[in-house]
Batch of 3 targets.
Target 1
Amino acid sequence: MAKERKKGKIVIDSERCKGCHICIEFCPNNRIEVDELLNKKGYSPARSKENVSEGEKGCVGCAICATVCPDVAIEVYRAK
Ligand code: SF4
Ligand code: SF4
């Protein structure tokens, strides 16, 4: 039987984000990247990567990114 894998999803509020990119460094599965569009405050916000490349793990909903974000800009959703 296939092992059940934890799945997660994050939503980043780009207008709250100050572009520090700490979340990008801390995500263990490399699920966050820099958005090329600036937000209204002129920062380059982080965004969730849309596609999971071959050999990469998807978001597991560990919430490390939300925990380290100094601006509380990340919400984490978990699904089974
Ligand atoms: S840690 Fe928070 S403020 Fe910093 S880039 Fe990530 S979402 Fe933006
Ligand atoms: S919840 Fe965990 S796996 Fe998902 S983006 Fe945040 S740090 Fe990465």
Target 2
Amino acid sequence: MNETNFEKLASTVRGFTGIDKNQPSLGYRLETQLVRGYSSVDSQTGAISVPIHLSVPYVHPSFDETTGFGYGRYGNPTRLELENTLAMLEHGLKGWAFSSGMAAISALVKLFSPGDHLLVSDDLYGGTYRLFTTIYGRYGLEVTYVDTSRLSEVKKAIRRETKGVFIETPSNPMMHVTDIKAVAELIKNINGLTVVDNTFLSPYFQRPLDFGADIVIHSGTKYLGGHNDIMSGFLVIAHESLIEPIFTFTMSEGGALSPFDSWLTLRSLKTLGLRMEKQQQNALALFEFLKNHKKVEKVFYAGDPEHPGYEVSRRQTTGWGGMISFYLKDKEEAPRVINRLKLILFAESLGGTETLLTYPFLQTHGAIPEEIRNAVGVNEKLLRISAGVEDAQDLIQDLEQAFR
Ligand SMILES: Cc1ncc(COP(=O)(O)O)c(C=O)c1O
């Protein structure tokens, strides 16, 4: 076998190729794509529910032939179906599924080298802050936290070593909205990468690659999984040049999603649209309740017509999502309200069928130094709600009695 043949074999085993632009599913509309996934049915058996392939090694039919799979860390048929489905939904070229959102972000960071400088949204999930600063800071990654919803701030923070921007929009937990297209154009001019954490809206409401982003990341633990029972993460890329480096990190590090969790996530995606519509409906009902309540000082919701990012959201999203944050007038009320809740669960996640209330100051954002938390507004008055799919009146009644 000559080297070219071997390279071909290696690249198939590694799953190097992007999704097939002629796959019939790419011609369907979003809700059909969600239900049917990339392959629609299993071509070998006709199974409508994608089979769970547990095998780690894959037999090669001969010395220079391959089925396209070699070893579980490099590729797995169930996981590949999920990765292709995510790439299709995000309008990308290729996707990778990881065992958590943080594992996906950690793989992404390896695209950068010591001394490289990254701009990162100043309001973001605390675990992402910890990863960039506490972990990768030690390996020479330089990060400037900036309010990416203000283009002038992004422009000002660019340096000669700047190699990219990492955006959360809407941001967690203050719901800042960043104009993806405007920032991506700016970053393209310096040959940098625009990365968007699309966890809060999912491809159902927002597809950042359509607006010039190069990479989308997800905590699939949230809306994509949607039932508070799977941890997963995703990277979806827009350019072929990113395939080789990301594949090399993922095959070397081994943070890939298990076959069972890949199957569970495919199963969850079928109802993503239904869930997100209901979660948004509930969030809107909660928004109306909270903004008129005497104990509430301010509500942060991307769907509020008075939100500074409302017009940008209308341009780049098809919905506002199910996440709301709000300030109580009195910080002493926060523990009291939390302790009085009966239906809404005091827990640290989001995007699932159950409505959760989080205290970001001590929970999701506890890893961020207090002065930074205070500067971005993550203080002791702030509560965050992830609307679930329950009856909206039951949720409102629960808050009403908790506020009393
Ligand atoms: C916006 C956002 N990105 C990334 C993550 C990390 O994802 P995971 O918990 O799946 O590792 C989270 C977790 O809360 C998040 O909220």
Target 3
Amino acid sequence: MVPQDTFALIGGSGALELLREYQHNCKRLGPAPTPFGLSAVLYRVRIQDAHFVFLPRHGEFGHELAAPWVNYRANIYALREQGVFRVFAWSGSAAINLSLSVGQYVLPHDLIDDTRGRETSFFKGTRLGAIRQHPVFCGEMRAATESVLRMAQMPHQDHGTYVCAQGPRLETPAEVRRARSWGGDLAGMTLAPEAFLARELEMCYLPLCYVARHAEGIKEREKRPGELLGEVLEEAETEAAEEARARFFGLAAAVSRALPDERGCQCGAIMDQYREEGRLEEDWHTWLGKP
Ligand SMILES: [Zn+2]
């Protein structure tokens, strides 16, 4: 079990319905001012003995802020300031890999950043930032999450490459073919630069994706003009996607319980190369560049 409020869940679309369900166990802390601007709203959530911080990245209603305009730096900074050092991130994604079905969970093991123009580092104007990205995500959180999913017998794939597109528009069929040729299994818009920023502040980060739809051109389907996601899901698929999303708070609580109190991974030592060179002060605030 992790210490109180050192674990955070970053939520994707559809946070509002989940917040409603957990409102009696939820304290709204509000947005946090940071040198990089205001963060998204933070909540403190309690589920039985698990206490964690919740940050809905697209806004409290789920859709106020599309992926390109999320203030990723402010969000990660605010979580770190709150005392969080483990981040569990949920992302609704589009399946590129045909073997994935809607509603299925995927634990990505790799990430391609195909975004443009986003602020991808805290270290602008400094000489810091050459940080390893292999493995991209925290191994300790991955092992804990896999064991939780296995014990709960939830269908999941324990690997996958996530291709992060700029958005907000959906991908073109040719972009999906290109992502597939790169080895992509999932397309989404949110994990980059979120994962990279968390690593810069020596936080553990693990995404858990659920398949919300198929990427364009992957599966020929009836299209209804004006349909939000451009695809008509079968009823069973819509239900499966909703069910997968509805479990995120419970999963976050279970993962936080399954993790050891002290970190046994390397995420907290990622800046050691700079420490050894005597280029880092102890206080992480002093590492950051100008906004
Ligand atoms: Zn870690």
